């Protein structure tokens, strides 16, 4: 297994820098930010709208790169991350840091120029929250790292809305709350079947410090307010039936899968099929909900 101390740096290319941005995670971040912008009840100039979404992507990529720069030692100890550019030796830490800071600064400056000061301020805070509050302060210290740190990934729809309107309103706050509450069951479902990696690296994820049964219980309990936050915009009159029906149906499926996780008694990763199903569905769930909230604005029922 490669370690940072023993690794000889190999030639890097643009794909290694791109990998620092965690592109699979960034896809969801960008999509929710775009949905927040499209759901806003204003006309947005397409060029400025594109620039705002680009800024969200750059900011998310910069924050992810800062995370990977700081956590290179942890990544070297876990099977699912040991082949990332830094622990594998394809990229040196100084280059990664310069790239991360450059992306982060560029995203905030461009957002300020293309949209407004408030959107740029929230974007800057979201980068700080993920890179410092979550990565540096919380992740290695508390099993509540995902609970509090989930706020970092919840900012994009709020940023998209504020970039379009210049103000904070109830709907984007509820969308923020939805992602915030979605994050623990999503990540804890994953951590249940890769908990040995976290244990080896000394990361106090909930399954490592509180056990599998307690984590399954927390997955189900967090799914309840998450489902309520998902459905809430409809009865509050903030969205139409297209979003509302989608949210009710998808949240019902999510709760059924979370209940299956709660009922599972297996402790071996190979037998954790309910956890794997919930993790996979949770990604589809968020994509579908945010697609629906954007479509609801333009195709109201």
From TrEMBL:
PROSITE patterns tied to this protein: UBIA
Family in the record: Belongs to the UbiA prenyltransferase family. Protoheme IX farnesyltransferase subfamily.
Gene: ctaB
Major localization class: membrane
Localization per record: Cell membrane
Lineage summary: Bacteria, Pseudomonadati, Pseudomonadota, Alphaproteobacteria, Sphingomonadales
Signal peptide: none
Protein name per the record: Protoheme IX farnesyltransferase
Protein topology in the membrane: Multi-pass membrane protein
PANTHER family (UniProt xref): 4-HYDROXYBENZOATE SOLANESYLTRANSFERASE, PROTOHEME IX FARNESYLTRANSFERASE, MITOCHONDRIAL
Protein's UniProt keywords contain Amino-acid biosynthesis: no
Function: Converts heme B (protoheme IX) to heme O by substitution of the vinyl group on carbon 2 of heme B porphyrin ring with a hydroxyethyl farnesyl side group.
Record's keyword terms, sorted: Cell membrane, Heme biosynthesis, Membrane, Transferase, Transmembrane, Transmembrane helix
Highest taxon of the lineage: Bacteria
Organism: Sphingomonas arvum
Something else known: Carbon 2 of the heme B porphyrin ring is defined according to the Fischer nomenclature.
Pathway assignment: Porphyrin-containing compound metabolism; heme O biosynthesis; heme O from protoheme: step 1/1
